[in-house]
Amino acid sequence: MSWPGLRVLICAVAAGGVGACGSPATLAHHATASLPGSAQHRAAVSRPALLGAAFRTPTNGYGMFVTSGAQRCRAAVGETDNGGADFHALVPVTSWACDGNAPVDGLVFAGVNGFLYGPELFETHDAGKTWAPDRQPGAVLAMSAAGRSVWMVESDCQGRAGRVPRPCRLRLLQSADGGHSWTRVPAEPRALGPRNGVGEPAAGQTWLVRTGPSTAY
Q1: What number is the average pLDDT over the span 141-159?
Q2: Is 60 strand, coil or helix?
Q3: What is the distance between the alpha carbons of residues 49 and 26, in angstroms, rounded to a whole number?
Q4: Does residue 62 contact residue 76 with C-beta atoms inside 8 Å?
Q5: What global pTM score does this model have?
Q6: Better-predicted residue by pLDDT, 168 or 103
Q7: What is the rounded distance in angstroms from the CA atom of residue 201 to the CA atom of residue 169?
Q8: Which end of the chain is more exposed for a tag (fewer CB within 10 A), N or C?
Q9: Over the range 89-103, which residues count as b (16 or more CB within 10 Å of their CB) and which as e?
């Protein structure tokens, strides 16, 4: 495992016909999804907006779509086999109150194993046909896959009422079986722990980019 210092990366996904994918507003019409309820209810629900994608090959991949309703927002995942020009019927994964924080904001696939995360975690092991929650002890901040190997950065920021909050820690977990089981990585980067045992790690976006079975940034 190598962690050669802190790198700032700007990542873009390019795969085959992915160039057809534009802004969420442009992409919404590519997804085929049926909206439940009456015509009045359907009128109050926005069209699905594509907010993330994960590709297994240049043409085959998955998109994360979010639909906003009058009160509830919903996240669903759909598959594409033509580089993102069209997505199959969307499979609902989770929902939340639209005036609250979304429980997911990222999508990762490792073969038939997929993960919708941030801060909660939902997983599929049948190529997106069904999804189920994975109860993690902390908030999932970042995930990255290389084959069946999946790595995950998770935060532990639990405080106690009436006392000084505990320092926030980040931990790096790994799965060698496509996310069926997780173990702590033996040697974590020093930056994941609190500075000098007190305080919180530097605030900001958490990124995890795999470059091979045993290397990552």
Answers
A1: 85
A2: coil
A3: 8
A4: no
A5: 0.73
A6: 103
A7: 7
A8: N
A9: ebbebbbeeeeeebb
